[in-house]
């Protein structure tokens, strides 16, 4: 007998018919002799709708109340899916994150899972039940308050449960047939990737490929969970996320990821002393501002300019913090440029191939696309471009790295 965690995303439980379709997939695994734990998201766009509703009441709602509100979405789905399973004659019970023993750190809106007490789920499985767990939520250990895991966090619930329950497999059912070379809704020629390594998937997810929540990939890597991303609407095999895959090892570029709404901030004429960088970024970090790419331009022995990118939604906060510390940091002025996007190429083969970045920059400049910032790691190169150039950049890079042309490799 195997043990499987199945996760159904918003679209896959977006209507009564789709909930029944999800129930059929659960039943199929039960009939194959498996113990099944199901994790579900809120139906369709419910979470967005709840965010919108809150916005009508308050421009700056309390994070605690926001989490209280958003977790209701998943609670609807667990009850309905469980009823659908009962209707088909199966024993099932729905559980909120708290009931499922999911304990989080003391932070609202983007809490990390600290621990899972899986006793209740184990008992349910032992007594022949299907456990249906609300994704995206947990309970803060110290306060018993409900916290959410960040948008897209149901993936993380599923993989964390798979780790805690020592499941044989975790299947992520979504509205595309797998992980593609880039978002198939943006690039029509994007191709499904049969298998991708944890590290590449982690980069893709961190760099904006919304198909998997980054922390889900982290859990999968740390606990060696065998993960498959696949469609809830077809029986086509999906994408396996696993240790470095043998079939497609060392591809220079495996995929492209992108995200918009980025702002570049430049702090000009800071005293060029030994603490300049550490002072600036310590202040930003201690004020909860997430900085991405950083560029330092030393002007002369005395002065330096420092640029960094942030999410545009944090712009006013960042400006306020910097203004508050202008005297301490001693810079002359701050300027910023919004309307930017980050476009990244990812592939483990970059480690051993020279010239990948050069090829990327040349392809973009041939299209008259100005690169504003760059950052690299062993397996990715990110560029910041104007948001209006984002789609053209992705299409150009998809083409130049021949991502649509590769012969598909069949899963066994
Ligand atoms: P779910 O509600 O099932 O979790 P999401 O909307 O969170 O679904 O994730 C699936 C979406 O991710 C797809 O519809 C697609 O638009 C987007 N996406 C972004 N990058 C990729 C990629 N590289 N491969 C597949 N889908 C991607
Ligand atoms: N419902 C949550 C969201 O829309 C969590 C998830 O779908 O993973 O972000
Ligand atoms: Mg998702």
UniProtKB/TrEMBL annotation:
Entry's Pfam families? AA_kinase, ACT_9
Query: So what does this thing catalyse?
Result: L-aspartate + ATP = 4-phospho-L-aspartate + ADP
Q: Which family does it belong to?
A: Belongs to the aspartokinase family.
SUPFAM superfamilies assigned to the protein according to its UniProt record, in alphabetical order:
ACT-like, Carbamate kinase-like
From the Swiss-Prot or TrEMBL record, what is one GO molecular function term? aspartate kinase activity
- Tell me the organism: Fictibacillus barbaricus
| UniProt name for this protein | Aspartokinase
Q: Is Chaperone among this UniProt entry's keywords?
A: no
């Amino acid at each position: 007998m195997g043990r499987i965690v199945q996760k159904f995303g918003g679209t896959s439980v977006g209507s009564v018919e789709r909930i029944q379709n999800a129930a059929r997939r659960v039943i199929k695994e039960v009939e194959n002799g498996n113990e099944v734990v199901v994790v579900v998201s809120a139906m369709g766009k419910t979470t967005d709708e709840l965010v919108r509703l809150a916005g009508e009441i308050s421009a700056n709602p309390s994070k605690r109340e926001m989490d209280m509100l958003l977790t209701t979405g998943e609670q609807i789905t667990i009850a309905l899916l469980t009823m659908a399973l009962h209707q088909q004659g199966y024993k099932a019970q729905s559980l909120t994150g708290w009931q499922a023993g999911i304990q989080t750190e003391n932070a609202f809106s983007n809490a990390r899972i600290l621990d899972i007490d899986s006793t209740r789920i184990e008992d349910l499985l032992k007594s022949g039940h299907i456990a249906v767990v609300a994704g995206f939520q947990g309970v803060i250990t110290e306060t018993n308050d409900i916290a959410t895991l960040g948008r897209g966090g149901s993936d993380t619930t599923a993989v964390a449960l798979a780790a805690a329950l020592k499941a044989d497999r975790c299947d992520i059912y979504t509205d595309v047939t797998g992980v593609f070379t880039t978002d198939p809704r943006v690039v029509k020629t994007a191709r499904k990737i049969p298998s991708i390594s944890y590290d590449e998937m982690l980069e893709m997810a961190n760099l904006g490929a919304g198909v998997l929540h980054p922390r889900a990939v982290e859990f999968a890597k740390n606990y060696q969970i065998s993960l498959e991303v696949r469609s809830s609407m077809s029986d086509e095999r999906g994408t396996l996320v696993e240790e470095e895959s043998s079939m497609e090892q060392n591809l220079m570029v495996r995929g492209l990821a992108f995200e918009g709404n980025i702002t570049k901030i430049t702090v000009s004429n800071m005293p060029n002393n030994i603490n300049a960088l550490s002072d600036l970024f310590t202040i930003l970090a201690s004020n909860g501002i997430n900085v991405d790419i950083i560029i330092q331009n030393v002007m002369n022995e005395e002065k330096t300019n420092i640029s960094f990118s942030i999410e545009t939604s944090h712009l006013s906060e960042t400006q306020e913090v910097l203004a508050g510390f202008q005297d301490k940091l001693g810079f002359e002025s701050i300027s910023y440029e919004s309307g930017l996007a980050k476009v990244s190429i990812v592939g483990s083969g970059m480690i051993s191939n020279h010239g990948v970045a050069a090829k990327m920059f040349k392809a973009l400049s041939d299209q008259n696309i100005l690169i504003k910032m760059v950052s690299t790691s062993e397996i990715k190169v990110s560029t910041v471009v104007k948001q209006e150039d984002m789609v053209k950049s992705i299409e150009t890079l998809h083409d130049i790295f021949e991502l649509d042309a590769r012969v598909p490799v069949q899963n066994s």
